[in-house]
Specification:
Layout (H helix, E strand, L loop, with lengths): L1 H5 L10 E4 L8 H14 L5 E9 L2 H9 L3 H10 L3 E8 L3 H8 L2 H4 L3 E5 L4 H9 L9 H10 L4 E4 L12 H10 L5 H10 L4 E4 L6 H11 L7 H16 L20 H13 L12 H15 L25 H17 L2
Helix pairs in contact: 10-11, 13-14
The structure holds iron/sulfur cluster (2 copies).
One iron/sulfur cluster binds next to helix 15.
Length: about 350
């Protein structure tokens, strides 16, 4: 459908970016070549503008999927023939992997690199991912290394999976007090746009108003000032103190073998945090109303047998979560909290 829409326009009026996943048992040269040829055929074009080695996470992963099978050499050949205009990779791992893959720049000449960057991940990626065992790399480091090598940067997750567009009331009030006309999402976009090596910012847009807000945020663009950046850093610290779970409802962790509605439970919990229905204890102001709102919403949105108390901690879901959420740990926390509320009317 995308191809059909694009074909109505001259080929030099748009860019096509796509990726070579080449994983999960498909790691041969032939399979990688087929993937690329298939992309050309789907888009009915003779070249791809931005071609990514998808989800690189470590040197070993890079070697297995692209080096040892000769696929990277073949892709570089396609680039020299003009069938790939820009060759890059997207990164989702820890610092040693990033450093090792970037060291190949001298040989490969990466035309661009796609990284997760937003004002929370800039300095606080460990806390933003909410999983202590994962040494997520701060975007400040990733961006700095790329900028030092003059490599253009493509940003994914500028909204941290939508989290920075759906902030709790406290941070929203703070952002609005500085610029009442601007949305929370606009701050996140303008943060990314402030850095000169940023080539493009990928944004998921579901509704027309998202598109309009994004256009407004970047039209007549003014980079944020040093003062604005310091203000956003303080906002990031405030956001990190709000205990929402950074679940984007992507459903990659589903189905849970024990039947839990993982994204549904997190959505309910986050909604209650954002609406201020998480009373700390029975002496908190508005305890009765908040307790009732929390328990009624939980009962209505999640069937009994799919709630957090059914988590056995098997860890099946962990490896699938792109946000690095400690799902069983969060389930225990939510269950303990729900039980506490039930026992204290
Ligand atoms: S750890 Fe819990 S939520 Fe995750 S798959 Fe196992 S039972 Fe389901
Ligand atoms: S994979 Fe992670 S982010 Fe996606 S729905 Fe599951 S918990 Fe949420």
């Amino acid at each position: 459908m995308t191809a059909a829409a694009l074909l109505r326009h001259p080929r030099d009026k748009y860019f096509i970016a796509t990726k070579c996943s080449n994983q999960n048992g498909r790691k041969t040269l032939k399979e990688g070549q087929d993937m690329f040829e298939n992309s050309l055929s789907v888009f009915r074009t003779d070249h791809i503008d931005y071609y990514l080695l998808h989800i690189l996470s470590s040197e070993q992963n890079f070697k297995e999927r692209f080096l040892d099978n000769g696929l990277l050499d073949w892709l570089m050949e396609q680039r020299s023939q003009g069938r790939i205009r820009n060759l890059g990779f997207s990164f989702h791992g820890e610092r040693p992997g990033f450093d090792a893959i970037l060291a190949w720049h001298e040989k490969v000449h990466w035309d661009f690199v796609q990284i997760q960057m937003n004002y929370l991940d800039w300095k606080h990626s460990d806390q933003a991912s909410s999983r202590p065992d994962r040494k997520a790399v701060n975007a400040e480091y990733l961006y700095g290394q790329l900028a030092a090598r003059e490599i253009p940067v493509v940003i994914m997750e500028p909204m941290l999976g939508g989290r920075l567009a759906k902030l709790a009331q406290g941070p929203v009030t703070r952002l609005k007090s500085r610029e009442p006309e601007r949305s929370a999402a606009s701050w996140a976009f303008r943060f990314c746009g402030t850095f000169p090596k940023v080539l493009t910012i990928l944004s998921g847009m579901t509704y027309m108003e998202h598109l309009q807000d994004n256009i407004k945020s970047l039209s007549g663009f003014q980079p944020l000032s040093e003062d604005d950046l310091a203000f956003l850093e303080d906002t990031a610290l405030q956001i990190l103190n709000f205990p929402t779970v950074p679940c984007t409802s992507c459903q990659y962790c589903m189905p849970c073998p024990y039947g839990l509605d993982i994204p549904g439970i997190f959505a309910h919990y986050n909604r209650c945090v954002n609406e201020d229905h998480i009373p700390q204890d029975a002496m908190s102001p508005g305890y009765r109303e908040s307790r009732r709102a929390y328990l009624v919403s939980y009962a209505r949105s999640i069937p009994r047998e799919r709630r957090a108390d059914h988590c056995v901690g098997c860890g099946e879901c962990l490896m699938h979560c792109p946000q690095g959420i400690d799902i069983p740990g969060q389930m225990r926390k939510i269950d303990r909290y729900s039980e506490k509320l039930k026992k204290n009317p």
